[in-house]
Amino acid sequence: MASQRIAVVTGANKGIGFGIVKELCAKFDGIVYLTARDEGRGNAAVKELSKLGLSARFHQLDIDASESIAAFADYVKKTYGGLDVLVNNAGMAYKVAATESFGEQAENTIRVNYFGTLAVCRALYPLLRPHARVSMVSSSSGHLLRINGDEPAASALRQKLSSSTLTEGELSELMNQFIKKAKDGTYKEAGWPNSTYVVSKVGVSALTRIQQRAFDVDSRPDLVVNSCHPGYVDTDMTSHKGPLTIEQGAVCPSYLALLPPNIKEPQGAYLWYNKQVVDWVNGPTPSFV
Predict the structure, then answer these.
(1) What CA–CA distances, in Å, run from 242 to 15, 18, 27, 176, 200?
(2) pTM, rounded to two decimals
(3) What CA–CA distances, in Å, run from 84 to 177, 197, 207?
(4) Which of 46, 197, 200, 288 is the most buried (most CB within 10 A)?
(5) Which residues carry out catalysis?
(6) Is the pLDDT of residue 69 over 70?
């Protein structure tokens, strides 16, 4: 069992995550795990795949619940001994019409999208086998230039976030600072934008760069992590406004999950939905879709 290759996709019972599982079922030479918070929806998604002639397995995983993450990591370790592909797709976004305060939205969005993703990485990265691939689903909102609050504070923040010496601890501290500023109403003067989703996804993009630096000095050879903007996709999260299908949204995250062994680039990069590497620090960001 231990020699079987394993791929895991988080938040995969619908939307882009489901599209990524479909793509991996067709192209990955191993077992694909579709994970989701809700067991009923997850199992229903696996049944839907089997109707298409695709085979995936389900395991419950809520990235916002530490005991769920620990149970899943334990399951993977005991059953397979390791992991070859991880796609961090799970996340949340408030609708424009949300009535929660900006401070509450900041706390919840950063907790799930940034700290939840970080918690999954901390639990599963020790299980990555040599040549493993990690694909982070970021967003066009996750580009550094979206940090556009008042100057000169915004420039100072962008400099910190893009620093080649930024640590995971320092990045987490910045995310917590944003929550605090969002709650007391001083976020704009501190350089932050007026979108909690933007900050959460910039956090994920910055985390990717930090993690690749750690992988570069890891004793396991050829560990690679990249982040991408999957495109503006027709999903529940976009209120079905995106012009792209979930299959089109799955293209770049799946491409990053299946990068061949010993590839020199992309590594620790930020890609657009068309697989193009984008300068995350200076831009420009390509056209939206």
Answers:
(1) 12, 16, 26, 31, 20
(2) 0.96
(3) 34, 29, 20
(4) 200
(5) 197
(6) yes
What's the pLDDT tens digit per position in 100-154? 999 999 999 999 999 999 999 999 999 999 999 999 999 999 999 999 999 999 9
Q: How many whole angstroms separate alpha carbon 214 and alpha carbon 81?
A: 22
Q: Alpha helices of 100-240 — where are they, by DSSP H? A: 102-109, 117-124, 153-162, 168-184, 196-216
Q: Tell me phi and psi for residue 67, to 5 degrees.
A: -70, -35
Q: Taking the CB of residue 42, how many other CB atoms lie within 10 A of it?
A: 23
Buried b (16+ CB within 10 A) or exposed e, 256-287: bbbbeeeeeebbbbbbbbeeeebebeeeebee
CA distance 21 to 23: 5
**Burial of residue 196, with CB atoms counted within 10 A of its CB: 0-12 exposed, 13-18 middle, 19 or more buried:** buried
H or E stretch including 134? Answer: strand 128-137
Residues 6 or more apart in contact with residue 63 via CB below 8 angstroms: 10, 11, 69, 90, 112, 116, 117, 119, 120
What does the block give as tokens for 226?
């990249």
